[in-house]
Design brief:
- By secondary structure, the protein is mainly α.
- The chain has one domain: Cytochrome Bc1 Complex, Chain D, domain 2 (Orthogonal Bundle).
- The chain is 31% helix and 3% strand.
- It is built from six helices and two strands.
- It has a two-stranded antiparallel ribbon with strand order 1-2.
- Helix 2 packs across helix 6 (126-136) and helix 5 (83-92) packs across helix 6.
- The longest helix is centred in the C-terminal third of the chain and has 11 residues, at 126-136.
Length: 141
Amino acid sequence: MLAGALLALPAAATAQGLRDDAIVGDAIPQSLTNGRGDAARGRALVVERSSTCILCHSGPFPEQKFQGDLAPDLSGSGKRWTEGQLRLRLVDASRLNAETIMPSYYRLDGLSRVGRAWRDKPILSAEQIEDILAYLVTLRE
């Protein structure tokens, strides 16, 4: 039964998180869910303070008075990076920069100082990652 359940998961993910062979160069080319995310849900997640995106990033979010300035502006994300490159940055930015302050939103292994609420589970689900990604790729300017 378990073997059948694992076969149904996307090639990039397992029940425990990301597969090592899912990363190709500086990207994760395949969806974590075998489908596309919803850009409207992704935008809602980005501007929601609990997701932490706008604590560090700024962007085209006029309804948010206070936005971060510690990380790149999200405006133009869809022009600067490919979908796969954005996916890896969301999943585990430390694979690209070991000194990054960006959380590993989908990584489970090798983490330290993990809050009790997130132990043994990713900060964002695969669906939430794909939703945020669907929104970020629309930011072309």
